[in-house]
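I am still getting used to backbone structure tokens and would like to learn alongside you. To get us started, please write out a protein record for me. Start from the sequence, derive the backbone structure tokens from it, and show both lines together. Once you have written the record down, we can walk along the chain together:
***
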Amino acid sequence: MELAKTYLDELVEYPAKVLRAIGTDKDVVSLLLDDWEVDMDSDEADSVFDKYLYDYLYVDNTSAESKAYICVEAELNKNNTTTMQDFRLYVTVICHKGYMKLDPRKCKGTMGNRRDNLVRAIDLVLDKFPFIGVGKLSLVTIRTVPSPAGFTTRELTYKVSDFRDNGISQNTTP
């Protein structure tokens, strides 16, 4: 079954594309798996898509591993014109407090904690991200947000102004 195209397709399409870019970056995968020599063609590297990357904001603190998670969500604000939208992308990095510390023997020369290094690595990936609307993603904020018990969370907010409408009508009545 294939769903009909709507003006909200970007809410599904772009987070999936962003997650694909994030999940195929060696630095991000290394930080998620705590494996600095991870083989990016391995089942272990591929497992991050099922275990640690989500296109919705939710981590169940009762069943979650003491690891790090990345959630991506999109928001569209329709402008008064028929061709432009304001598009925002939220990337949330959630890290268990027991998983924050990086082992200096494994990651020589890397300073700081796992969550903030994930934020840094993700921003590097998204700085090169090519397929959002007519413009480039611009980082608007990095902020600490409320977390599930035992976790710590940072949210990156990106914006693309003048995001082109895909031209599909909002009116779904026959």
